[in-house]
Design brief:
Blueprint: H1 18-32, H2 36-39, H3 57-64, H4 68-72, H5 85-96, H6 128-147, E1 152-156, H7 162-170, E2 175-179, H8 182-205, E3 217-220, H9 226-234, E4 244-246, H10 252-257, E5 267-275, H11 277-288, E6 292-300, H12 323-328, H13 333-339, H14 344-349, H15 352-375, H16 391-398, H17 403-419, H18 457-474, H19 485-492, H20 499-507, H21 509-526, E7 532-538, E8 549-555
Parallel strand pairs: 1-2, 1-5, 2-3, 3-4, 5-6
Antiparallel strand pairs: 6-8, 7-8
Helix pairs in contact: 1-21, 6-7, 9-11, 13-21, 15-18, 17-18
Length: about 550
């Protein structure tokens, strides 16, 4: 596996060696420290704390005149000639520090790599995004496993087993699929059996029936941990037949004592979007377990990472990993880890209407925060989450429900919840979501020919009131008789246009913070010395799969 040099736009930063990676990390730290007021801000408090006043007024005034599409390009580093010089410098410098996301040419790194289009039997149930990811990643993992002469590939956080099954049936690799969900294990087994029937039938027809089929094994590990991964990878070589185990009462020490001293198992760990700390566990297991010869890790869900000094963990945490980042002295916290989930590609691919919807929904949520602050101040101490309001309505719209019925359908839904019992929910916070997922409360026709962010003021107020009523219900709060929604709306209405420019500037830090997190993981591997060969590559098309950076390491 060849080492890589990465030029980040005009910054010419490289992560080929530990010293170069650390230099890049320090450049990021130096750049972002003055902007902590913007990164650490919560957009839900936009109106309550008048957050726009903390940003250069010249920048805000300039961006207020920009069309929505130009705002959506800011996280990608696009600037306009007429912008203030300081604003252009900010956007371009920030972007120069971001790890590039254009899909890499994998042939120089993996000579002879064969990325083939998979048949419809193997891709059943996959959407185009998942199909693209599995086709590319399975080829990469197969190449790595062959180069290391691995006996077994362990698919960590296997989900429904897509990657494991392609590696087994298409590439004839021995694979163990582990996941925390027993349901996923059952789905993986059922899907594997269907695929096996197809391949067995094809083999009989082609008179190759004596060839054995390699079927992925499924293991449910209800509590994922480094000890669990170590124990699994250190066990005797697994048989090439379907096994299923429940690790609820798994005892690593008892399992280790049953093994012989001589063990020549060679294992590759692979994970497609292994969530939060799971990607970190893979890298640490790779370093700590002699049987693991290589790792291919694509992370996601940085908001779920545990962090030193922020989360209640005794010794194991997901960030920081490297000594270099620890010495840099920049901790992130929940707000910045949330922000790292923002994708420039998702922003760039939004059309004008979707961008408008995104900004409007953030404005509604920030205005709703004003209601909580004024009428339910005790609730704010719990950092309330009300979910992505209007997502169900948007789905109805996509199914072709007439526009004239949408608001009534939403009104009826809200009233029924207010009259009955609100379900207990734990939705994802709006601020952590991708803009492409931001739900719209608005019918398409209401955007045509209207001002600002697209909706007539009277419609905006009406929808805000319904949004707020639903939000109160989701929080289990009984609406007070003296809540003056109109009063709150009049207070925030003059500043509605400011939320688009502000949120676009803040979202631009997302790819930079993700770069910081990824470089920390890469530096952790590089700090281990010359016995580890590691590389960081964008292996997917970023418009199909924005979380496309793989960290690949081998023991040499």
């Amino acid at each position: 596996m060849a080492a890589s040099t990465t030029d980040a736009c005009d910054g010419n930063y490289s992560c080929e060696t530990a010293s170069q990676t650390l230099q890049w990390i320090n450049a990021i730290v130096d750049f972002i420290k003055p902007y902590s007021f913007l990164m650490n801000a919560h957009v839900v408090n936009f109106f309550k704390d008048r957050l726009w006043e903390y940003v250069d007024k010249e920048w805000i005034d300039c961006l207020l005149e920009e069309p929505v599409q130009n705002l959506l390009q800011i996280p990608s580093g696009a600037v306009q000639d007429h912008w203030p010089a300081s604003l252009k410098k900010f956007v371009l410098t920030l972007r120069s520090l971001v790890f590039p996301r254009e899909q890499a040419d994998l042939q120089p790194v993996f000579p002879g790599l064969d990325t083939t289009s998979l048949n419809s039997v193997l891709t059943q149930g996959m959407n185009p995004k998942k199909k693209h990811e599995i086709e590319v990643l399975s080829a990469v993992v197969d190449s790595v496993a062959n180069s290391m002469r691995a006996h077994t590939i362990i698919d960590v956080g296997a989900g429904q087993g897509y990657l494991a099954q392609v590696l087994s049936f298409h590439y004839q690799q021995s694979v163990v699929a582990i996941d925390a969900s027993s349901h996923h294990g059952r789905v993986t087994d059922a899907r594997a059996k269907r695929i096996m029937k197809h391949y067995a039938s094809q083999m009989r027809k082609s008179e190759t029936g004596k060839r054995s089929l390699i079927i992925p094994k499924t293991i449910t590990c209800h509590v994922m941990s480094i000890d669990m991964l170590k124990s699994l990878t250190s066990s005797e070589r697994l048989e090439d037949n379907i096994i299923k185990q429940d690790y609820d009462n798994y005892n690593p020490k008892l399992q280790q004592s049953s093994r012989g001293a001589d063990n020549d198992t060679s294992v590759v760990l692979a994970g497609l979007h292994a969530c939060g700390d799971l990607s970190v566990m893979m890298l640490k297991t790779f370093m700590d377990c002699k049987e693991v010869k290589a790792v291919v890790s694509i992370g996601c869900c940085y908001n779920l990472l545990s962090e030193e000094d922020f989360d209640h963990v005794e010794s194991q945490y997901g960030f920081p990993m490297s000594h270099g980042v620890k010495s840099a002295g920049l901790l992130l916290g929940k707000s910045l880890r949330d922000l790292a989930c923002q994708s420039a590609e998702r922003w760039r691919c939004l059309d004008t209407d979707a961008g408008v919807h995104n900004f409007e929904l953030h404005a509604f949520r920030a205005a709703f925060q004003m209601i909580l602050s004024k009428y339910y101040p005790e609730v704010l101490t719990t950092s309330p989450s009300i979910g992505r309001q209007g997502k169900a309505l948007r789905r109805l719209q996509q199914k072709g429900i007439p526009d004239s019925l949408l608001c009534n359908r939403y009104k009826d839904h809200t009233q029924s919840k207010m009259e009955g019992n609100c379900p207990s929910i734990n939705p994802t916070k709006l601020e952590t979501g991708d803009p492409g997922e931001a739900a719209s409360l608005f019918d398409e026709d209401s955007h045509k020919g209207s001002e600002c962010y697209g909706i007539k003021n009277v419609d905006k107020y009406s929808l805000f009131q319904k949004y707020s009523q639903s939000g109160l219900c989701r929080l289990g709060l009984k609406p007070l008789q003296d809540i003056y929604f109109k009063e709150i709306w009049k207070e925030v209405e003059p500043f509605l246009e400011l939320i688009g420019p502000y949120w676009s500037l803040r979202a631009a830090f997302g790819p930079l913070l993700e770069t910081y997190l990824l470089l920390d993981r890469l530096l952790f591997l590089q700090e281990q010395g010359s016995s580890i060969e590691s590389v960081m590559l964008p292996i997917f098309d970023p418009e199909l799969s924005p979380r496309n950076v793989a960290i690949i390491a081998k023991k040499i």
